[in-house]
Amino acid sequence: MKTIVLKFGGTSVGSIQRIKEVSKIIKSYSKKYNVIVLSSAMSGTTNKLINMSQEISKKFPDQEYDTLVSAGEQISCSLLAGQLSSEGIKSRSWMAWQIPILTEGKHKYSRIKYINKTKILKFLKSGGVPIIAGFQGVDKNLNITTIGRGGSDSSAIMFAKFFKAYRCVIYTDVEGVYTTDPNKLLSAKKIKNISYEEMLEMASMGSKVMQPDSIQDARLNRINIEVKSSFVNKPGTLITKRKNIINNKIITGISTTDNDAKVSLLGVKDKPGIAASIFKPLSQNSINVDMVVQNISANGKETDLTFTIKSYDLNKTKKIINKNKNIIFKKMVFDKNVSKVSIIGVGMITTPGVTFRMFQALARKNINIQVISTSEIKISVLIKRTNVTKAIKCLHREFKLDI
Ligand code: ASP
Ligand code: MG
User: Fold this and answer.
1) Which of the residues 94, 374, 377, 394 has an alpha carbon 20 to 30 A from that of 160?
2) d(Cα 196, Cα 199) in Å, to the nearest integer?
3) What Å distances lie between residue 347 and 49, 181, 220, 354, 364, CA to CA?
4) From CA 196, how far away is CA 347, in angstroms rounded?
């Protein structure tokens, strides 16, 4: 029998009613597969525990934080295993230390390095369905660790890796990955298949279906992921390697960001080392610079440099640039009312003219492009925030994502 990993997110196990529903889903797999279940805490639980620690002290010790917040998964897993048992299915819960799931790194942000398979394999062989706590592990000294907020996705991917599962199904409260944000565009369509690379581009830009780190782990280990809803019985989205995808569309999806700010430095000296002198102090302060353009200098002496950052980093950025005597410029201007719109698709590697079609579609709608950046499978433009909906709509149509 093939092994399958099923992961349930917080809303999927958010109430006793939900736990009963989820156990039906688990049951439907258990005849055909060896099922390994990973569960999150019931929605809201982890936040509540964190709030309690904050009420004690803003400097609550990291080690105690991990012991505290990992407790949420203990509740949901035991409820789920109890529900399955009451329905006559052999099941039990497993906390990380009982397996054990070994992690490395700092408290709060550990990474799973190794999973001891012995006990779980034995339990699977005996026909049992193990319900395993996501998000937690133990370090080599048996201290309880956690692997970062939303980490049960990553736990599930690691189980799929160590148990060589045929697939990892991520059950959540959305039906899958959409061509663009369905809240912004009604005609957004669920994507049937998407490559890891495309999904990474979509995820890092706001399609918050799965944690980017987990997608990266899945990509490296070639694990097929299916994202689907535990609330409706409909096919979800398969995240897989490019080779498995037969797609006639050039563009797979459109994503947008809502929290960009544009900074322009006018009259910057045009000589080697200037860009580095600007971006070095920013990177030292963990400010992520995204898009960059430098104009050609008309007089050969001075140029203008424009870049984008997250809008919450704007004040910090202003201070750093003003304070740094090595950065010489005439004037600094900002714009907080900008957004990045990106079209993403592996199809653009082999199809010429995609850039042109994007720009033309935007031009027809009178949308001015302020900054452009491209990668192998993505073209991004920075535009006025008020134009975002219009832009998504015309690009969605231009690249035939409506149908
Ligand atoms: N319960 C944890 C959290 O809320 C882990 C997870 O949900 O994946 O962050
Ligand atoms: Mg979660």
Assistant:
1) 377
2) 5
3) 45, 20, 21, 9, 23
4) 14
- The whole-angstrom separation of Cα 185 and Cα 84 is 40
Q: What is the pLDDT of residue 207?
A: 53
Give the separation between CA 166 and CA 291, rounded to whole angstroms.
Answer: 39
Which of 40, 65, 66 gets mutated to test ligand 1 (max ligand atoms within 8 A of its CB)?
Answer: 40
**Using a 6 Å CB cutoff, which residues line ligand 1?**
10, 40-41, 46, 72, 134-135, 149-152
CB 195 within 8 A of CB 201: no
Q: What is the pLDDT of residues 151-184, one digit of tens each?
A: 999 999 999 999 999 999 999 999 999 999 888 9
**Domain 3-173 is found in CATH 3.40.50.720:** no
Cα of 40 vs centre of ligand 2, distance in Å, is: 6
Spell out the alpha helix ranges (H) of 11-91. Answer: 16-30, 45-56, 62-69, 71-86
Predicted confidence (pLDDT) per residue in 223-255, tens digit: 999 999 999 999 999 999 998 888 778 999 999
CA 82 / ligand 1 centre spacing (Å): 21
Other residues' Cβ atoms within 10 Å of the Cβ of residue 296: 8
Q: Tell me the pairing of strands 378-384 and 371-375.
A: antiparallel
Residue bearing the CA closest to ligand 1, atom 8: 150
How far apart CA 236 and CA 133 sit, in angstroms, is 24
pLDDT value at 200 more than 70: yes
What residue spans of 189-342 are helical by DSSP H? 196-203, 212-220, 274-284, 314-323
Separation between Cα atoms, residue 261 and residue 338, nearest integer Å: 6
Looking at this protein, which amino acid is placed at residue 26? I
- Give SS3 for 138: strand
Token reading at 200: 């990474």
* CA 57–ligand 2 middle distance (angstroms): 24
